[in-house]
Automatic annotation (TrEMBL):
Principal location listed in the UniProt entry: cytoplasm
Subunit comment: Acetyl-CoA carboxylase is a heterohexamer composed of biotin carboxyl carrier protein (AccB), biotin carboxylase (AccC) and two subunits each of ACCase subunit alpha (AccA) and ACCase subunit beta (AccD).
Keyword tags: ATP-binding, Cytoplasm, Fatty acid biosynthesis, Fatty acid metabolism, Ligase, Lipid biosynthesis, Lipid metabolism, Metal-binding, Nucleotide-binding, Transferase, Zinc, Zinc-finger
Family stated for the protein in its record: Belongs to the AccD/PCCB family.
Annotated binding of Zn(2+), by residue: C31, C34, C50, C53
ZnF (C4-type) intervals: 31-53
Name of the protein described by the UniProt record: Acetyl-coenzyme A carboxylase carboxyl transferase subunit beta
Gene name of the encoded protein: accD
Source organism per UniProt: Hyalangium rubrum
Length: 282
């Protein structure tokens, strides 16, 4: 029998089989600092802090709120608010398409989650940035939700608490984004007439218009270890002034040494520290 067939073979087009996710996918994580491979379940139990070197890995906003607030105390508000495209902005991708795909991937409407909860029994109006949503950039909706955190705290006569992690203003919304710096700062000024404290917790990174407005206006300013905090990034500053910056410039340790923040609090100690502060001044 010949090794080939003279009869023509008609190829039929088949749809590619859907790729089945590996059972091991996502079970392990690699530390960005010491390169150790860590069992993800162990890492999550440790609040996304490396057990080998204490490096603070990214922690999602909802996990952070669930881990720091009293169990079942968080009530979310303003979830229905969604950003629009007032400028019809387009770069490599249309802004409205970028929003649509990001919403689908993350299941969040924008880069900020807000509501009311309790920490060791103390009521707080709380907000937390979703850095995975376009770098936690602040557009019109983020600014509105931040403003409502302070308005809600004023009405409820409770403390305000914000966790900031952002690349700054959202360029796709232009001046509408920059206006949020003044808007949120004005909301803080009104909130302060109620004589309740605003606690600002700066995460890695907190930069741009967010750092230049409400993030640095806290009555008490805390930060996580080694967080990058500042307006412009170190590389931009070096290129502008044409000088080499000091070692660790704009990291939370550097800022603490120079009196720019009140304390650096490791993640595992943050809930207790917030409870202590609220008990003293809240």
């Amino acid at each position: 029998m010949a090794w080939f067939s003279k009869k023509p073979r008609i190829a039929t087009r088949q749809e590619p089989a859907e790729e089945q996710p590996s059972r091991m996918q996502g079970l392990w994580a690699k530390c960005e600092s010491c390169d150790e491979i860590i069992y993800r379940q162990e890492l999550e139990k440790n609040l996304m802090v490396c057990p080998h070197c204490d490096h603070h890995l990214p922690w999602t906003a909802r996990s952070r709120l669930a881990g720091l607030l009293d169990p079942d105390s968080f009530e979310e508000f303003d979830k229905e608010l969604e950003p629009l495209d007032p400028l019809g902005f387009s770069d490599s991708k249309k802004y409205k398409d970028r929003l649509k795909s990001t919403r689908k991937n993350l299941g969040e409407n924008d880069a900020f989650i807000s509501g009311v909860g309790r920490i060791e029994g103390h009521q707080v109006s709380v907000g937390c940035f979703v850095f995975e949503f376009m770098g936690g950039s602040m557009g019109s909706v983020v600014g509105e939700k931040v403003t409502r955190v302070f308005e809600r705290a004023y009405e409820l006569k409770c403390s305000a608490l914000l966790f900031s992690a952002s690349g700054g203003a959202r360029m796709q919304e232009g001046i509408f984004s920059l206006m949020q710096m003044a808007k949120t700062s004005a909301a803080i000024a009104r909130f302060r007439t109620g004589n309740k404290p605003y606690i600002s917790v700066m995460l890695h990174p907190t930069t741009g218009g967010v750092a230049a407005s409400f993030a640095w206006l806290g009555d008490i300013i805390l930060a996580e270890p080694k967080a990058l905090i500042g307006f412009a990034g170190p590389r931009v500053i070096e290129q502008t002034i044409r000088q080499k910056l000091p070692e660790g410039f704009q990291r939370s340790e550097f800022l603490l040494d120079h009196g720019m923040i009140d304390a650096i609090v490791p993640r595992k100690d943050l809930r207790a520290k917030l409870g202590q502060v609220l008990g003293l001044v809240g």
